[in-house]
Design goal:
By secondary structure, the chain is mostly helical. It contains twelve helices and no strands. It is found in: Endoplasmic reticulum.
Amino acid sequence: METEKRTQISAEQMDNRDLSEQIKEVTKDSHVRAENTELMLSFQRGQVTLPQYKLLLCSLYEIYQALEEELDRNSSHPAVAPIYFPAELARLKSIENDLEYFYGSDWREKIVVPTATLRYCHRLRQIGKENPEFLVAHAYTRYLGDLSGGQVLGRIAQKSMGLKSCEGLSFFAFPGVSSPNLFKQLYRSRMNSVELTAEERNGALEEAVRAFEFNIQVFDGLQKMLSVTGNEHQESSTNSKAVHSKTLPGTISPMIRMVLGLFVALATVMGLYAL
């Protein structure tokens, strides 16, 4: 009887919390798991590599393209309008600039992402059409995560990759936000003002957990791509040396040119992200 009473009180207290606090509570475990993925640990240790970062940018491009297209399309929806801040938060253009810096003007032809990224994008487009109110969970998870760690993570990435300037790191910069802390307060206030039914709120909380799970899967997928690419690189280098000893100096056979082309396409597709 006493246990049931405590459970009931706890549930009531949870219901009375702001949406932002509820999301923080239900995603606590997922947040810890995301921070302990191999990719995120590289950030925390200051060991981010250029291949990691480039591959991450490719996935971020696909994710933010899906998210921001759905936010734009639903900008007048009562659950989206209060948290719609394209001038302050939009990341797509920044990511495009970073991709062009690292890959050149034909960067769109060089994007490769793990299957987990495609699943994430599919979900964003699905709820954009069927349940726009759930976009609030994804927007909150992505944007406030990026805004919270942006400047610190940008410096870590710049130092660990040996970049002499901030070029290629536009993703971490929010020129439209003069005070991240004040803006986050505003954002949470706007988000908490969104009116949702009990069913919609529960759905939004479930979607927030799902958002973290998608990110974890993307991190793991990127790391697997890095591992596969690394192994292919070693094999390609060994085979290349063996064949090169049979060719004239300064010449590359068509077969090796094709192998190197495939390898470069894979090796140039690496990156990273931080929630």
